[in-house]
Amino acid sequence: MTAPGWRRERFALPDGVVYLDGNSLGALPRAVPARLGEVVEREWGTGLIGSWNRVPGGAPGSGWIDLVGRCAALLAPLLGVDAADVHVGESTSQSLFATTVAGARQRPGRRVLVVDRTTFPTDAYVITSVARLLGLEVRWCAGPGDDGGLTAVAAALDEDVALVSLTHVDFRTGAMFDLPAVTALVHEAGALMQWDLCHSTGAVPVDLADAGADLAVGCTYKYLNAGPGSPAYAWVAPHLQADLDPPVAGWMGHAAPFAMRLDHEPSPGVGRLRVGTPPVLALSALEAALTAFEGVTTAGLRAASLQLTDRFLDRVDALRERFPAEQIEVVTPREQPRRGSQVSFRHRHAYGLVQALIDRGVVGDFRDPDIARFGFAPLYTTLADVDRATEVLAEVLASRAYADPAYAVRNPVT
Amino acid sequence: MTAPGWRRERFALPDGVVYLDGNSLGALPRAVPARLGEVVEREWGTGLIGSWNRVPGGAPGSGWIDLVGRCAALLAPLLGVDAADVHVGESTSQSLFATTVAGARQRPGRRVLVVDRTTFPTDAYVITSVARLLGLEVRWCAGPGDDGGLTAVAAALDEDVALVSLTHVDFRTGAMFDLPAVTALVHEAGALMQWDLCHSTGAVPVDLADAGADLAVGCTYKYLNAGPGSPAYAWVAPHLQADLDPPVAGWMGHAAPFAMRLDHEPSPGVGRLRVGTPPVLALSALEAALTAFEGVTTAGLRAASLQLTDRFLDRVDALRERFPAEQIEVVTPREQPRRGSQVSFRHRHAYGLVQALIDRGVVGDFRDPDIARFGFAPLYTTLADVDRATEVLAEVLASRAYADPAYAVRNPVT
Predict the structure, then answer these.
(1) What confidence tens digit (pLDDT) does each residue in A24-37 have?
(2) ipTM > 0.90?
(3) Which CATH topology does B31-293 take?
(4) Which member of B28, B52, B134 has the closest CB to residue A45?
(5) pTM (2 decimals)?
(6) Which of A125, A123, A87, A132 is nearest to A195 (CA)?
(7) A243 is catalytic
(8) Closest chain B residue to A259, measured at CA
(9) Nearest residue of chain B to residue A116 (CA atoms)
């Protein structure tokens, strides 16, 4: 059994801080600053344009043009897929736009896109955008609930459904869809299954290939620790690739981009999801960040994550008994298979409570209207972090520091 | 009169290299590595999630959420526009997709998108993608030619045209459309005018507001020196903003992103072009890179650029006389108002010629099938660079080093 936080020395965490917000922005991997300095000063500064093919002193494959593939190779084991089926480099929203259009185009005649009401908002907006452009309609389904979402999804399925797009782990509650079972259910109805893995990958096994999923996207700045606004990934099952038809054909998705012809001949496979020039600095940070996962299994991540969330839930339950008047309501499922790598609870002063914790060195975050949310990044969060966080939470509840008038005005980014 | 290369000390150029490829990837501004180190180690490493609102020790407005606006403020003078009308953060291709859809939607009933055949390929692909999604058609027009494109564009216009999208400076030849005159011509036909400024901004004045243009996009990794794959900008004229309707609604383009509602209420103005989480590392590099332009006028950039291209053309003409058998054909217009900030010529061994120059420390680039291309970045390219480059070119022509069999196999990225 691996102890939670067993790779903490690979991360630069500030002293005196218990960081439980890695599900919003992962901590800085120590490998990143050195790598970025090298990319900027040596590869860009001295290699200049030549670094696209090969960086100064580098081997074949060291060039910037190979970065997307190198990142895909590091991500693939965490997704349970082949690297050849992964694209990296756009934002999550842009990736989701591309895969949703490409998916819907493979189910002509079916005119409904299903999305969960518990999804992260950008998914709702993007899928609505796709429906409008393609003349389809959006059908909402309920979130994962008590049974991993089987009842919710079954209620939304019929022969009109082209694609179901679900956020695997609910960003507010931490409730998790049963990925393999829901995928199978969706396939029975003849629809394609797309997963948003933003709040999963790096903490929860997803095993997309084993589950037979069709499409997936996810960000890399949460449990994958690649930095603020880092690039997203998209995965497309091999059986969809031959006819893959994304909405935006860009020059980097051309089979021969440097022939610079006016007619678009799509690159084979997921390469056609490439659009613009790859973001080299951001991809280099991602590549360095992912080295923190080398030699790590998703089963090991999951085991550590469950130790952390179990312990946090136990401690919060103790505080609920101690402070019944606070009316803390845990919204994260108690059953392990129904839970991602976070714990959330409702409190009537949730914003002030989170701010009071931050002011005392315990960083979680707030989600409108009344949720306090705590994420557990298995590589660097320890059981001692959990204990310290709940001790401080006890102080804040005892003192009612959450009601401080200083917390009446919210930050723009919560 | 400012001497070309008057800000060279702000760039980290390797010794012994004459770099004439800033129209493909700009040189490294010295301000970038220090800034990136600070963003990564202090803002991300110690400020963590809190840096979205305010970085450690920073003033209000120092937060990552303000980066897009800060970059827009630095870009606006180079575009001749108000910062409030500029969005920064997607790739050029994704920006062009967004502005083209938004533009076409403001000319309902008109079913033609015009694009120049001399455009950079991604524009052709993206506009074809838009036409397909919106049920429109693409009409090709000729490039800038001898009269700044007036004849070419006039021939493509009629009352069916919704939008004309042109690449201001031809990436192969350096020929330039007459931006104000073409804009006026397009408006006479009732269409919207969109400019791709990738090969212009930072070297050539564009003055979009004075010209009355409608839409523009451009990259920041060429004359703006923000690094490989750095984010693009998009500009939307104020008169189009109230009804601006881009194709992909993302969470950061919401009027209240952190309310996290399922219905999309677009942010006012160009803010609705925001899609995913802004790429903080890349935007920080861009912000630092743009400081090299502080106190610089576009007239000053243009004057320096013309000195450089005039001198290079003179020297190449001398070599054409000296080596008539080489059959060098200059394809860049001789008239200053028809020329961007590059000079290109045809040669039957153009690929080998460019490689032979690179091997001798003079970096230009090759464009299929037979063009050797040299860009002049006025902030850091000097007249001495021009002289040295043409001396080396003379050596390569005299020795016919371009025919070296080592140059028979091309690099993937040319």
Answers:
(1) 999 999 999 999 99
(2) yes
(3) Aspartate Aminotransferase; domain 2 (3.40.640)
(4) B28
(5) 0.98
(6) A123
(7) no
(8) B368
(9) B262
